[in-house]
Amino acid sequence: MFLMTLLVGCAGASRHTDPVSVGPVQNIAPGIALRLPATPPFGADVTAQQLVQARYRNRTEVFQALIESSSGRFTIVLTVPSGPRIMRIDWTANGIAEKREAIAPSSLSARRLLADLALVYAPENILRRNIEGAELVAGDDGGRKLERNGETVVEVERPLHEPWNARARLVNHAYGYTLDIQSRLMVSP
Known about the structure:
This protein has 189 residues and is mostly beta strands. The chain is built from three helices and 13 strands. It has a single domain, classed as outer membrane lipoprotein receptor (LolB), chain A. The strands form two sheets. Strands 7-6-5-4-3-13-12-11-10-9 form a ten-stranded antiparallel β-sheet. It has a three-stranded antiparallel β-sheet with strand order 1-2-8. The protein is globular, with a radius of gyration of 15 Å.
């Protein structure tokens, strides 16, 4: 399954000793890392459904994601479109827990997925504090870039307002993949 290629943990994650400010580290590109915050940075009261098209070289895969974010908790469930569950990820102050189904590729990385989501949806100030090895450049339109030595390594297109209810795109030039995300907010029952 191609999903494993795009969301593979390109390097091992490590744990910092300050549990209040930072959690595991995920490589974004060679020499560039994102320290995931100890608690999810996505805010409260977000319930969204996403259709994600992942492209790597000449291969394309599509998957669905159901996202629920509340104060101190972030849950994402990945499924094959209209099909079986692939993985569930829960992120709280206690850490990141994942439940993998039999169809989940062994190289599918919860931390890689959360890092990509953070690049798209986390507040800019949190990203600035937690990115190592690159500069975050934010555009007036909501877009973001990670640059190193004047070279764009990762590009994110997203709207400035209501990014959970819109289209977004992440292009990781270093690892050669693109995520096209159609996200829509869902009304809680």
